[in-house]
């Protein structure tokens, strides 16, 4: 681990392999936490639920994704254990059974929808991609594959343009802002 003095901001950041250490993230939370832990990633997911600006590291994204998938599988088993099997081959009975079995999973998905969208958009920002690419996953099949590829991309320095400015870093009128990372 080495220390890097940032001449432009006067901050001292702890750097691991060229990346900011998770404990040295910007105070406004707009920078990504590289190499973060599961509890820290989940805490950040909850605290930045409605924040669509800034960046999220791959570890932040994939820890949340793993947690979401595990809870979804557990809820699937809980639902199936609680709902008695369908007794007739009637289409209405089968539809009713499907609705009962998927109720907890549907609630879980709805609770996580906005947070997942904001996290995915921040992950795209970290890869240097506009958040508008989030909509590509609405294309059935190839859209979901493209989204998996996009969120798996490594971070890029060009993603710094998606970070919010701290009040002390506000550019003067007519000046050019250059990213510090």
From TrEMBL:
<feature type="compositionally biased region" description="Basic and acidic residues">
    <location>
        <begin position="162"/>
        <end position="172"/>
    </location>
</feature>
<keyword id="KW-0472">Membrane</keyword>
<dbReference type="GO" id="GO:0005886">
    <property type="term" value="C:plasma membrane"/>
</dbReference>
<feature type="compositionally biased region" description="Polar residues">
    <location>
        <begin position="1"/>
        <end position="15"/>
    </location>
</feature>
<feature type="region of interest" description="Disordered">
    <location>
        <begin position="162"/>
        <end position="181"/>
    </location>
</feature>
<protein>
    <submittedName>
        <fullName>DUF805 domain-containing protein</fullName>
    </submittedName>
</protein>
<dbReference type="InterPro" id="IPR008523">
    <property type="entry name" value="DUF805"/>
</dbReference>
<feature type="compositionally biased region" description="Basic and acidic residues">
    <location>
        <begin position="20"/>
        <end position="29"/>
    </location>
</feature>
<feature type="transmembrane region" description="Helical">
    <location>
        <begin position="91"/>
        <end position="111"/>
    </location>
</feature>
<feature type="region of interest" description="Disordered">
    <location>
        <begin position="1"/>
        <end position="32"/>
    </location>
</feature>
<keyword id="KW-0812">Transmembrane</keyword>
<dbReference type="Pfam" id="PF05656">
    <property type="entry name" value="DUF805"/>
</dbReference>
<keyword id="KW-1133">Transmembrane helix</keyword>
<feature type="transmembrane region" description="Helical">
    <location>
        <begin position="61"/>
        <end position="79"/>
    </location>
</feature>
